[in-house]
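Before our next group meeting I need something from you. Please put the record directly below this note.
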Amino acid sequence: MTLQRGYWILATIIFLGFVANGATSPFFALYATSLGASLGQIAFVVGVQSAVAVAAGLVIGRMTDRIGRRPLTVSLAMASLALLNLAITRVPSWGWLIPLHALLGLASGAYQAVSLALMGDLLAGHPQRGRFISGYRMSGSLAFSIAIVASGQIAQTIGLRGSFHLAAGVYLLAFLVSLLISEPARVQSHAAPVGFLLLLRGPLRPLLILALAFGVPFAAVFSVWPVWVADTLGLGRATFAWLWGIAAFIEVPSMVAAGVIVDRLGHRPTFIVGLAGFALVYLLYALAPTIPGLVAAQALRGVAFAAFTATALTMAIDLAPPEARGRASGLFTSAQGIAQITGNWVGAPLAAALGFPVLFALAAVSVLGGAVYSFFVRGKTIAAPAGVVRQGTEP
């Protein structure tokens, strides 16, 4: 499989995946409540899906390192997502969502880890990895920005069940596209096997620390942000969707620019811009909760998210040898999942106990700490275990 052919196939699949997710994720809570679920039960279902996704990324990433079959794994994940979204439309009560969302977590966790490892296989040694990986992720951002703006009209036109039917059809199309992927040639290595502990003790550790420093406050803030904008500030749901769309659309060109900067200047500048940028975003939420302040914050959020994400994804495929790329991708996506679970768990209680401004201030401190860490770790030597590449070891 040539680089260009494989790249565009994977970019098409992530685009379709984000379209499907954008058609359903804004309305899952409404659909679950229509089946009789309480808010606590909805949180439990989402938590089960996230927890299974974390484990799936680790297990299946390691499995594909050993036996290959990454294209087959992507195809099975897309087919499963299509069938599961169709099944969700048929359930008579909310309790059926628990096993179905556990299976969704299995399929989505497997896809995220394996597709990133597969992209790493394609881009191995390429001098423009940053712009390629950012362009790949940009296709997802573009799809989600379109879907999140159109999702309200879609749900109103075809109903909540219709949104899941639409998602099932899009995932089916992604499955058909995935059949075009062929297995890349595996690089032969005589190095000792590289396990999770070696990766954690080596160059992957700073990336995982930064993923948590960014991801926990991000999930904590944006799990309650719609309520804060629509209800606490009294701006309504339409304004919330409009503000979210600003960040999503600005993220698209910013992702490409961030990839170019990563290729030219390395990882540290874009990591610092992304993390410090989010510190300013959270401070704007706390100090300037007006329409002009929120517009400025959302514009900056699009740039900062692109800077962090393009850098993190590039590092995730750089920091392990070919025979451990699935494990490294699994560790990275699982760190993101753990951050999301933790943030979703603490966001609402902190906002209720301390108030939204304090939550935003704590989030700013966390990401600013990540920016400082990224700056100082750059000058240190991070010992890499035998068999682990040093390329890009410091953020």
